[in-house]
Amino acid sequence: MKFAIIGLYVLVMLAIGIFSMRKNTNAQEFFLGGRTLGPWVSAFAYGTTYFSAVVFIGYAGKTGWSFGISSLWIVLGNAFVGTMLAWIVLAKPTRRLTARLNVLTMPEFLAARFDSPFLKTVSALIIFLFLVPYSASVYMGLTYLFEVIFQIPFTYALFFIAFLTGLYLVLGGYRAVALADFLQGLVMIAGAILLVFYVVKDPHVGGLAQGLTRLKDFDPKLVRPIGPGFTSLASLVLLTSLGPWGLPQMVQKFYSIKNEKAIKPAIVVSTVFSFVIAFGAYFSGVFGRLFFNNEMPTVGGVPNPDLIMPHIVSIALPEWIGVLILMLILAASMSTLASLVLVSSSAIAMDLVKGSILPALDKKKTVTLMRVLCALFIALSVYIALRPTFIITLMALSWGTIAGSFLAPYLYGLFWRGTTKAGAWAGLITGLGISVVFPVIYRMNSAVIPTIGSVAMLVPLLVVPLVSIFTPAFSEEHLLIVYGTSSNKEYGSESPLRTEKI
Predict the structure, then answer these.
(1) Neighbouring-strand partners of residue 298
(2) What's the number of CA atoms in the CB half-sphere (13 Å) around residue 395?
(3) Is 419 a domain residue?
């Protein structure tokens, strides 16, 4: 039965890819679905890209074990900052400016906004290089689950998942991803609700009240709103909630929405979706210690938090529910992986090759190149996934580096006309430097990498305006091209730090 359900899922994904392939005649169709996606599809695409095996396997198990009930702060941050506030603040100006400038990617937007072609080249390389570890972490999470539930060896499961992702994505592009997201989102909601129900009623937990009492017996701090290691938890909340504001695979969802009228319903749908999925994952992870009598599962004698959630699923859930949960995580991860691969391949194909090296490359060859790069990106991700490490380390390193590089230039570029080219470069270099140098200094210590990622996002938010104050402003002609108006009302007023007319 388990293999029959998985087989049916594979056939549906391939059918969606083949159906969508016919419509992908150019790069905009392949990468953004022609900017024609409605609110429900866009909202589900955002949510399913946000949550993947990294959340369900790596983060939910590890944070629940470490922080107990206080890990639910991540749920609130993800739903109301990472999703609702992101849509409210970013969706409309992003959709408007990217359409006005006729750009399809984050590097293209930064290059057009700051009149710097080289910024596009550097941004493309950062995206391609540092999304690979995140993709690898997603593959690792899925593979652990397949290994536990289906008893499929790690390597075989990894190659199967990579092949499936690559096949339907290379065929159908973003349209296939978005259509699949809607179906997968429904599976995710049902799975998250059932996961909470079966975990709480399992004899290891014995109901909500009894479960909290048993956790308290292990450590009273595990049932407090402000639990153990709250500084580390705050870094995770910030990284996973503010970080998506600067991630190209998340921002892409604002580019592709059909029109501005679709944004309001998308805000509601995506927020509810994010809350349900995040709560299902992190709330279940809170009770991880109860399933293992406070002894973390090990691999070769080494404690491995990535095994907590797979074993909970196999222990607490009936077989068919376990398969549904597997489908939930597979669905989320497929969407995340597809978005990562698309964004990364486009960074090289459109921003580097067509944008700088071969500007005369025609539409069909650009799409072909994107498909080849999709396959290459997946291959690199699989290679890294085969190396021993923890999921949360890979994911935090990737998010911290990319969000640290792009968050400040992107935000100030959207809203502050006074942002200068030098300010944007300073923000990117600062975030990239912090996120790359300090993990090396701390020898990739998983305990500090989320904090480093948070610092890498925050410091550039100060650096960009500070440098912009003392460097040459853009001409009014350039700002008219970007914003389409000489008035500051539409996109926000001048920074209080800079009052002269530019």
Answers:
(1) 303
(2) 27
(3) no
DSSP 8-state secondary structure symbol assigned to residue 56:
I
DSSP codes of every residue in 225-256: SS-TTHHHHHHHHHHHHHGGGG-HHHHHHHHH
Q: What share of the chain is helix, strand, coil (3-state, %, to 5)?
A: 80, 0, 20
The residue among 235, 239, 234, 218 whose CA lies nearest residue 65 is 218
**Torsion angles phi and psi, residue 290, rounded to 5:** -70, -30
The whole-angstrom separation of Cα 45 and Cα 252 is 10
CA–CA distance, 199 with 194 (Å, rounded to integer):
8
Write phi, then psi, for 255 (nearest 5 degrees): -65, -40
pLDDT digits (tens, 9 = 90+) for 153-172: 767 777 777 777 666 555 54
Query: Domain limits at 241?
Result: 2-400
The pTM assigned to this predicted structure is: 0.81
pLDDT tens-digit series, residues 203-254: 999 999 999 999 999 999 999 998 888 888 999 999 999 999 999 888 878 8
**CATH of residue 363:** 1.20.1730.10
Distance between CA atoms of 410 and 201, rounded to whole angstroms?
A: 45
Backbone angles phi and psi of 37, in degrees to 5: -85, 135
